[in-house]
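note to self: the first set is below, dont mix up w the second
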Amino acid sequence: MDQRVDQPVCCYRHPDRETGIRCTRCERPICPDCMVSASVGFQCKECVGQAAGAHPRPRTVAGGAVAADPFLVTKILIGLNIAVFLLVKAVGDRLVYDLGLYAQCTDLQTLQHVGCGVADGPDQWYRLLTSAFLHQEYWHIGFNMLSLWWIGAPLERLLGRTRYLALYLVAALGGSAAVLLLAPGSLTLGASGAIFGLFGATAVFMRRLRYDMRPILFLLALNIFFSFTWANVSWQGHMGGLVAGTVIAIGLAYAPRERRDLVQWGTCAAVLVISLALSAVAVAQVTS
């Protein structure tokens, strides 16, 4: 059956959703919400129910449980970012230095160590993650939260809550690790590293589902261009998050069904360990 990207069809249960996947039993087109993983390809819920005698618990394309509110985690992440932003506005910039990411705080005039950073002990490593929820400017949090909703919400529905949250947090840590390695002296903050991880994951799953990749590739190329051309933008964090998110998504999207959990969570754990190890290497370089 021809499933060319240039001639998309719509899901038989959701006529407003284009798809390039068909049920391997009845050959009707199905969207991610209607897919149930089979030993070969995907089947629609009706065919699976008829074969088993009862409808199974619905699963996402990546094997996660289908939730009543498929966007709940994205809403919570946006809420946390906004809450921290409002706290910064209420408390002042001191909170930025308490939660932001840097290896060591150095006085540029005296070159003396004047503040705590990740290199000042294990009790400061929380900055690898808190910095990803920290924003100081209105335009910064506005742009990031809009991107998180536009990119994150569809991806959460595709992956399921647990896998989506793991992808987001580990991508954020990957971005932090890249910053410590490549720009240890700069104060870095923002959710951009994690969001770039979601960009990479979206591209992987669009490829996996045979969707037209031109829109996401254009958006990704545009954001990469801005990362390297705009002032005061951490391209290191962006690229670190992008690489981490892409690698995790490959494990999520292409894990064999019989070893799905092992491959998926093993990939997440491997990227997490590598991110922490690279952060440790960066800290060692600063303190040596």
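second set (the one i keep forgetting abt)
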Amino acid sequence: MLGAFMMVFLVIFAAFYIYSALALQTIAKKTGTENGWLAWIPIANIILMLTIAKKPLWWFILCFVPIVNLVILIIVWMAIAEARGKPNWWGILLIVPVVNLIVPGYLAWSD
């Protein structure tokens, strides 16, 4: 039973990871950012997000500090929303539990 639970968890996690990476790669492509393939590499996707948001790369270190990382990632997603021509409050919506699944897709595939 535990094995079945782990398989379901792994499938759900893989689906979410593919969705997030595809959305980030699409955002990079639409903003004209080079190396959009970095969205598929777990740690390197943070560097891609900082590049899209035009934030300093040393913020990468702050993404690994507890509590600080939440603030930094919200600021980065706010800047990504602005880079896509959307209001920056879309980045704040990442705090809301179910909406945070919709935000990357909206920023990637909306006009």
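remember for set 2: The radius of gyration is 14 Å.
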